[in-house]
Each structure stands twice: as structure tokens, then as C-alpha cells.
Amino acid sequence: MALQAGIVGLPNVxxxxxxxxxxxxxxxxxxxxxxxxxxxxxxLVDVPDPRLYKLAELVKPNRVVPTQIEIVDIAGLVRxxxxxxxxxxxxxxxxxxxxxxxxxxxxxxxxNILRDEGAINPVGDKEIIDTELQLKDLESVEKKxxxxxxxxxxxxxxxxxxxxxQRCKSHLEAGKSIRELDLSKEELPAIADLFxxxxxxxxxxxxxxxxxxxxxxxxxxxxKEAVKNxxxxxxxxxxxxxxxxSEMDNADDKQLFMDEYGMKEPALDRLIHAAYNLLGLQTYFxxxxxxxxxxxxxxxxxxxxxxxxxxxxxxxxxIKAEVxxxxxxxxxxxxxxxxxxxxxRIEGKEYVVKDGDVMHFRFNV
Length: 365
Known about the structure:
Layout: E1 4-8, H1 15-22, E2 41-46, H2 50-59, E3 63-65, E4 68-73, H3 88-96, E5 100-107, H4 122-151, H5 156-173, E6 202-208, H6 218-226, E7 233-237, H7 239-246, H8 251-260, H9 267-278, E8 281-287, E9 291-298, H10 303-308, H11 312-316, E10 318-324, H12 326-332, H13 335-340, E11 345-347, E12 358-363
Parallel strand pairs: 1-4, 1-5, 3-9, 5-6, 6-7
Antiparallel strand pairs: 2-4, 8-9, 10-11, 10-12
């Protein structure tokens, strides 16, 4: 399941440093040069999950496989990107392809790091990106509007689409993002083919100085206040510290480093979990001698859909699912003990998988 979260922001706010920290399969060039990342870098990121390793302790498998999401490092946007400034069309196209946006905003002062926009202004920086995405969406909506207007005279379906598009146009012209419009499930198909940039869920990263990594600062507080009505989460972190932690292979060295900075866990863990939740994802597990593995599914998926992420044949030939809740598996210590205690359930096609379920599927080939 190649679900992607794209890192965006103005140049020199810490995007590539963050990508270097979260990615375990690629390294972006972190540089003080405005367009150092012209093609998006893509990295597969393990989703930290202590439950996976607890199951592994009990089962003692040959291998342990965490679930992952893809993080895309997209080059810095600039004012005028919607009109092609700074390779803007290329970068906006890269954003269109991702499922969610991680918006990095500079919340620290450093005279050695270039900044085109003058004094540090996290709210202003956010608004620059918002405006460019809104302008590009407005262009997309207006193009479809001109097509649908002709059809709407004789087609009821087109008329309904027209009404949704007109609402979107007015909303964007007012400087607001589509995700704030709260369209119903029935209305969303009218714009589904547009892949609107401002319709994507957003997670904000306030990249603060070292002294503010635990408490935040005046800049991160301004950002939180600015997005409080967006139903968006703000993660406060120091991207440089996180990059240093990620480069350490030795677990003891990593723990000593975090202890020195008073950290219980890397802020990256919070970021990755937040991005995972932002995408509406959850995890189920398979646990056997060969491997203990975490699988990514969407919230609300039923058992056959969950089986399909292992193999499409599992969904086609689905018969039943054997299910043990994570807490029960840990409580009884094994699949056999949980079965003997009556905690293994047999579920059918309508079963909605719960986060943390330990599952085996019965299917016909």
C-alpha cells in the first residue's frame, strides 16, 4: 500500500533535513541552496509500533517486518509557484500525487540560513504556501466549471456537480482551503478527478531551535493559534537533532544522546504516527514462526479487504478470519493459549478489523 505523505514548505525551512531523519531508504541533499532538491526523493519509513516487537518476543519468529509509509521530499515552493515561479508547476504536480502533506515551517532565528521573506514569520510563511496551492486549485476548478456549465442545462448529475464546483470556487476565492469546506461524501465525487491540493489533510511541523524543542517558542505558538480551526496537528521538533539521532546505529548511543537532551523518544516517532493517523490508517498483525508482521489498512476496512494487502487472492477466495485481539494475545502469551481460553474468534466477511488485531485468513485458491 504505497500511501504517501509529502514534505513541503518554503526554501531553507528544514524539509530535507527532516526527510534525511525520517527516511531509512534514501537521503536527500540538505543544502543552503534554494533548489537543491529538484526531483522529489522518496523514502520508505518504518512506522514505530512497540506492539510488533512485543508479539515478536512471544512468538520468536525468523524475522520481524514493520509496516511502512512513503515520505516524499518535495523541493521548496516560492511565492508565485502557481504561476510557474521557481519550477513551481513541477513541484505542485509532485504535491498532487501524494495523499497527505507534511508542512514544515521555520520557527527559529539563524542569520546564517538564507531567507527571502525577511523576518521570521511562521503564519506568513504558511499563508504563502496556502495561497499558491489555493490559486492552483482555483485554476483546476475553473477549468472544470467551464465544461460542466454547458452540460448542466440538460443533465441533473452535471447540475449537482456544478453546484459543488461553484461552492469550491467561492471558497478558494475567499482564500480558504478545500479541506475546510466540509463537503459531504455524496459531494466529493464532483471534485475527485481534480486531485485538489488544498483538499489533502495537513500536518504542520514547527521546526524550532534546540532550546525550544520541549516547550516550543513564540513562533510555534503563533503557528498553533493560526491553525487552531483547521483541525490540524502541530508537531514541535528540532529537525537537526532528529537527523543526528537517526544517523546513530548503536541503540545505547542513541539512548545516551536522547537522555542528554531529556527526550523519552524521538520526536520523529510522534511525527510518523501523526502522519499515519492523518491518512486514516491502522495496523493489524500476522504472527507465526516464519515472521511477525504489521500490515497497513484503512480504518473501517472489513476482513476481506484487510486480507487483500497480503495478496489479492486472499480477498477473492476469502472464507473466514481467525482473530485474536492484541491484548488477549499478550495476556495469554501465544495463539494456542488464547485459543484454549476461548479468545480466538472466527469472523466472516462483514467483520470490521480493529487496530491491533492478530489475524490469520482462511481462503480458497
